[in-house]
């Protein structure tokens, strides 16, 4: 994933996205444990909603970072990822 900015900004962005994904990972483990322990439907759905929210937030962080990078240098981003501008646009639309 191409991230522009200073090395410090790049590291902070990667850390923020990784933390969101780790949170989703932990919440998914909670869903699995709830299902395996025959927890109530309410508990399973509550945990599942938390996973969905965490993944959505991570996805939006990734998309916003990629969009910022693509707006700053669309050709450079396309070349770095090996995608055409049209392919990048389709990827963004698929996540929206």
Task: Give the arrangement of secondary structure elements.
Layout: H1 7-36, H2 41-72, H3 74-81, H4 85-95
Helix pairs in contact: 1-2, 2-3
Give a verbal description of the structure:
- Belongs to the CsoR family.
- It holds the Pfam family Trns_repr_metal.
- This is Metal-sensitive transcriptional regulator.
- It comes from Microbacterium helvum.
- InterPro entries: Metal_Tscrpt_repr, Metal_Tscrpt_repr_sf.
- Helices cover 84% and strands 0% of the residues.
- It is mostly helical and 96 residues long.
- α1 (7-36) packs antiparallel against α2 and α2 (41-72) crosses α3 (74-81).
- It has helices at 7-36, 41-72, 74-81, 85-95.
- It is built from 4 helices and no strands.
- The mean pLDDT is 81.
Concise structural overview:
This protein has 96 residues and is mainly alpha-helical. It contains four helices and no strands. Helix content is 84%, strand content 0%.
């Amino acid at each position: 994933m191409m991230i522009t900015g200073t090395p410090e900004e790049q590291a902070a962005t990667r850390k923020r996205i990784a933390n969101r994904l780790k949170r989703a990972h932990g919440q998914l483990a909670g869903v699995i444990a709830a299902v395996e322990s025959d927890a109530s439907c309410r508990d399973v759905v509550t945990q599942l909603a938390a996973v969905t929210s965490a993944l959505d937030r991570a996805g939006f962080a990734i998309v916003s970072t990629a969009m910022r990078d693509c707006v700053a240098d669309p050709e450079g981003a396309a070349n770095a990822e090996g995608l055409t501008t049209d392919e990048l646009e389709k990827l963004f639309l698929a996540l929206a």
